[in-house]
Amino acid sequence: MNPVTQMILGTSLQQNIGLDKQFFKSIYQFDWQPKKSTKVQIKWIDLEFVNNRNLSNYFNVYKNSYDRLNAIAKSYNTQSEYENEEGNLSIPEGTNQFINAVLNGETVLNKENPNFKTVNTVKERQDRLTANNLILGSSLSMNFNTQESIFDENFYQLRLKVDWVGNLLNGFLRAINAEENEQGQTLLGGVSPSQYVKSEADYIKHWPLGKDQVIAFHAFGGLAIPYGNATNMPFSRSYFSGGSNDNRAWKAYKLGPGSSNNINEFNEANFKLAFNLEYRFPLTGPLKGGLFIDAGNVWNIFDNIEDPAFRFDGLKDLSEIAIGSGIGLRYDFDFFVFRFDTGFKTYNPALPIGERWWNEYNLKNAVFNIGINYPF
């Protein structure tokens, strides 16, 4: 069974980048291997605390949110003290004061005005991404792998995982009548503990075609459902699409959610589908090539996002699966593979219907990815 018990304690501090986050982590887990091809892992305690230390830097980091807010202020702001010398909202005082003025009815904008709703959306996203996260839960993972060695190219891998977070902690806080915020969420030290259940399935299959020729397939599905003490997922536990190990025709965090046109710097959601198919072949010596097709997207489901462009509301939304294709070069150093992939947007669900196929299939819109080792 090869049983192993692990206790992990860690902390990290991120300064001068983003919101200057500080992370604390504590894990107590069991691992064992009932068969050569099967591994099981139970995290009895999986604790993470994320502390945002530089909240005033928010609109310097999330420029798209600032630009949307500033454009509205150009038409509706009447207070010069909210503006800097260039006539734009100052950060952070002007942005925060203008948001409060709009939401408190101190401008001509009313709740039926689309610009009021945009300001409210900007505020909700700001509150979510600047909130500290306390995540305490458990998880079960099972990994099935038929690969005999690193040279075996006829195998499959299947990873299944279930997380359940926040049930015991929030149940305890409610039992002792702990402090609650305006939304009725329990608080611990001023922080609302996360509560959700999350499940994932990750499958990889390789088929050898000849000497150093391989067809590699990858499929992933993940769903995280917030409930009880939460209406959305912590940013660190959400899903995103794009990047060198995902849909390579989009940069990381730039795809989705749904048919929305990546209006934020970091686009994420709580439901993800991803599929990849790749043909790998030799060129000369250690230099190898690859042809690939990537498909997938992220959506919001069972959370507090109401915009239909972001949400997965039924099978019809499978038409929002983005497709990228491309070619890659890989250099095999024996102990690792250096990978350079070029992805082209083949089907972009953010474009109007009728313009989604091949409209951006050109070098101008290509995405160049650098990676170490194969993504699957």
Characteristics:
single chain, 376 residues, mainly beta, Porin, 2 domains, twelve-stranded antiparallel β-sheet, 5 helices
Layout of helices and strands:
Elements: E1 4-13, E2 21-35, E3 38-52, H1 58-61, H2 63-76, H3 93-103, H4 114-130, E4 133-145, E5 155-165, H5 167-175, E6 196-210, E7 213-226, E8 271-284, E9 287-299, E10 322-332, E11 337-347, E12 367-372
Antiparallel strand pairs: 1-2, 2-3, 3-4, 4-5, 5-6, 6-7, 7-8, 8-9, 9-10, 10-11, 11-12
Q: What is the H level of CATH, i.e. the homologous superfamily of the largest domain?
A: membrane protein fhac: a member of the omp85/tpsb transporter family
- The CATH architecture name of the largest domain reads Beta Barrel
Q: Note the run of SSEs as H and E.
A: EEEHHHHEEHEEEEEEE
Residues in helix, %: 10-25%
**What is the arithmetic mean of pLDDT?**
94
Counting DSSP H or I runs of 4 or more residues, the number of helices is 5
The tally of structural domains comes to 2
Class from secondary-structure proportions: mainly beta
Give the strand line-up of the largest sheet: 1-2-3-4-5-6-7-8-9-10-11-12
Percentage of residues in strands: 35-45%
CATH topology of the largest domain: Porin
Poorly predicted spans: none
Mind summarizing the main beta sheet? Answer: 12 strands, antiparallel
User: Which outline best applies?
Assistant: globular
Number of strands: 12
CATH classification class of the largest domain: Mainly Beta
What oligomeric state do the depicted chains represent?
A: single chain
Gap from first CA to last CA: 27 Å
Gyration radius from CA atoms, angstroms: 23 Å
